[in-house]
Amino acid sequence: MIKMFDHNFSYYLMKPFHTSSIMTIILFHGWGSNASKYLEYASSLTRKGYTVIIPELIYHDTRNPLTNPFNQKNMETYFWNVIFQSIDECHHWLNCSNIIKQNTVVAGVSMGGFIASGVYATTVLKGLASISGSGSFFYSERLFRQASNRDPLTNKEATKLKMYDPMNHVHGDGEILLLHGEQDQIISIKAQEDYFAYLTNKGKKAQFNRYKDVEHEFTTCMQTDVLNWLEVQAAR
To answer: Is this prediction's pTM over 0.85?
Structure first.
């Protein structure tokens, strides 16, 4: 594992030992988490022959991290800013690096699932795996505001959100895997259902795994399902 800073993109890079890389996976972590938390899972991926990139996100990791990220005001102020900037940074890096996009999968957990979905929606990549995240940004924010009794989006806020919302983009023809706990009280499964319906109506190759009695988490079962799905993608 090495720490990289390339085209203003800071990330951990992990490559498989004793074999050439089968596929590259860009893995985004969630709100209030950090890139190093996923090094162990990344190791399980490299043992399968994948190269793994775990970006450091603004206001997290070593990039001016928030002192109390789960403070309600901090979440309301910075949540979408982190998502938007992370999408932009990843796009810039993908366009400047030598990475083969058609052999790259973007994945993310929780907020990372939002980021991965936003990157995938506007870039030709091999696939997307979103764990406990959302590809329906506008609907997700409506649900967030309803849950906390906040005012509806202003026109300016709605316009900015829709610019990045995967529901407003065409997407490529890669495979998409959505995984979500049915008891998730942090990121409602309703938003991911909305995204899946959109993908299905557009004729995209999407799979939606629902997990009964699972809350907002990345369970061992989910981890195994992602590994199995990646093996299928690598064989295509």
So the answer is: yes
